[in-house]
Design brief:
Number of domains of chain A: 1
Largest interface: A-B, 34 and 34 residues
Order of helices and strands of chain A: EEEHEEHEHHHEHEHEEH
CATH superfamily of chain A: P-loop containing nucleotide triphosphate hydrolases
CATH class of chain A: Alpha Beta
CATH architecture of chain A: 3-Layer(aba) Sandwich
Strand order of the largest sheet of chain A: 6-7-8-3-9-10
Oligomer: homodimer
Number of helices of chain A: 8
Low-confidence stretches of chain A: none
Bound molecules: adenosine-5'-triphosphate, magnesium ion
Shape of chain A: globular
Strand content of chain A: 25-35%
Radius of gyration of chain A: 18 Å
Number of strands of chain A: 10
Amino acid sequence: MIRLSGLGKEFLLGDQRVHALRDINLRIGRGEYLSIMGPSGSGKSTLLNLIALLDRPSNGDYLLNDRNVTGLDDDSLARVRRENFGFVFQFFHLIPRLTAAENIEVPLILAGQEPRQRRARVQEAMASYGLIDRAGHRPDQLSGGQRQRVAIARATIMRPAVILADEPTGNLDQTTGKQVISLLEQLNQEGITLILVTHDAAIGEHATRRIKLIDGMITEDTAELAA
Amino acid sequence: MIRLSGLGKEFLLGDQRVHALRDINLRIGRGEYLSIMGPSGSGKSTLLNLIALLDRPSNGDYLLNDRNVTGLDDDSLARVRRENFGFVFQFFHLIPRLTAAENIEVPLILAGQEPRQRRARVQEAMASYGLIDRAGHRPDQLSGGQRQRVAIARATIMRPAVILADEPTGNLDQTTGKQVISLLEQLNQEGITLILVTHDAAIGEHATRRIKLIDGMITEDTAELAA
Ligand SMILES: Nc1ncnc2c1ncn2[C@@H]1O[C@H](COP(=O)(O)OP(=O)(O)OP(=O)(O)O)[C@@H](O)[C@H]1O
Ligand SMILES: Nc1ncnc2c1ncn2[C@@H]1O[C@H](COP(=O)(O)OP(=O)(O)OP(=O)(O)O)[C@@H](O)[C@H]1O
Ligand SMILES: [Mg+2]
Ligand SMILES: [Mg+2]
């Protein structure tokens, strides 16, 4: 379903090139549960952004469900992204003027759902993530871990085909982190492809397939070992 | 040196009161090494902000070196804060238009240090935190963990009397996280009071004194056990 071949990303800083990712070859099937680990600065967020069509590669190809999405214009990219991906950002990107409940509701509004149905789904999501009594708080009135959970609820509420989570437990205590991971794993049980970037080895090891990134390159892929 | 008595903080949301902290009694001596752990939303960041004079309590008293700092005006508060505290924010608060090096340099400029001395100290700080080849990057051109390290370098570069770090390894891999903690512990060895909020039990247990916060109240304080 996701096929990256020879994918690379470099950033230009003045006349300096930063090779954030090089020669990424990766095939991810529908319903897989994959973790990506690696040192700070190794390219994990960059890779996640490319998969979720939030950014364009500098070289290589990206086939999504056999369709080449590498050369799409911005509008098509945005549409394919909305239809396929739920993204939990490393730093959340919540809308400052909206409450927790309103932030979570945004994807449902974009999808054209009815108010009554939206209300019910937002309630359910908030209950799952322990946010019911913070529903009316705006992001600056929430703790770090509460904002993180709002971001996760928002990313998952539409049951997208693929959920990408960039360090989803970085601001959570052990107990809350485990609850969040188990909720994400439940979605994976329902058939949703789950891709987690994490610095927590306990969480990374829990995935059925584990990828290691160092200096912009994949150095380990447990799917390759089995081959 | 830090004496909190009956300290409380509540937020007003419309007509609702959120009791973020209640009846905090805490004495922290010079040179102590203290960790604060607790569930997401339990009041850790709020407590750290009160100690660092970034916020005012709703009730109770705060004596800093025997001086009551509870009722100070904004300018005096800012001066006492700058003279005593180095703060690593949970979400960094770097200045977007400045490079990594310039962000780290800010406290030195505020302290009136000479350019040559500033350059040397910034170089040393960047070397310690593995940021030398990211010196010219702005925050949006850095990875999450690189931004976190810039925030830590900035908070520690003036060797303040007290360093408060709000989840300083939340975006770091194991190895980088350990390096960062050992640098902070070295500063503590030099006599600097170190207060760490963390969700990482391995890091929390490493402190000589450990405090647990639940629902805005201190439920455990290893200093009390010894008494
Ligand atoms: N816009 C940019 N311009 C230049 N360099 C960049 C830019 N964005 C990221 N980088 C660099 O690319 C590399 C990879 O960044 P990325 O954010 O993917 O790392 P990461 O693995 O997610 O790290 P972390 O674990 O710290 O979040 C880093 O070294 C970073 O400095
Ligand atoms: N400005 C505000 N208005 C209303 N409530 C607030 C405000 N700021 C924080 N809170 C609430 O106060 C409580 C404590 O927040 P705090 O940020 O101190 O938690 P924390 O222990 O640091 O959590 P985390 O581990 O998730 O970072 C939370 O329940 C939060 O929702
Ligand atoms: Mg990252
Ligand atoms: Mg916090």
